[in-house]
Prior knowledge:
Blueprint: E1 33-38, H1 53-63, E2 69-72, H2 80-94, E3 98-102, H3 105-109, H4 114-130, E4 134-138, H5 148-165, E5 168-170, H6 199-214
Parallel strand pairs: 1-2, 1-3, 3-4, 4-5
Helix pairs in contact: 1-6, 2-4, 4-5
Amino acid sequence: MNRRDFIVTAAAIGSAGTSPFALAQAPGGTPPVILVVGDSLSAEYGLKRGEGWVPLLEQRLRQQKIAATVVNASISGDTSSGGRARLPALLAQHKPTHLVLELGANDALRGLPLGNTEENLTQMTKAAQAAGAKVLIVGIQVPPNYGSDYTRRFEAIFPKVAATTRAAVVPFLLRGVADGANAASLFQADRIHPTAAAQPVMLDNVWPELRKLLGK
């Protein structure tokens, strides 16, 4: 994959591996396990360890005294197809109570059929739900140079899958990052990956829906 083909809202993952932590659980309770499966937008690409929105999520959970374990299982350049292939093993290994699903950008970048992306996200959501996990689908957008029809249909995938599967949804992870007046300052020199300054904004986009799923 040629990373220069990326556009600000269609990013390939920088590998972050897994990043678990746990807080003391409440008496008689079991802390939730939050599994994040995404691309570079979730994997600290070009950032120092601890600067990405997923590590910031860990910090917020600690600050708000919410017991949880967070596992970041994002992989560089992953597509919805790749995520679907990996998910069964991840579900078996980590037994998540919550899945944050942030995939699809690389599907659009590669011009893959949108129907395949929708099917992959749908099946991943259903598989996680069948395993007992609540699912939060995190959407992205592609620039208008993809064509207005493609852009519209791509953006519609995420709320459509959420409605079909009764999952929660964040329509646009980069709201306030890619669409603001200061967007240029919130991306790294490659004009592809968000900077450290953008990560708290991304977390703020995810947090309200995730907190609801956590029952907090």
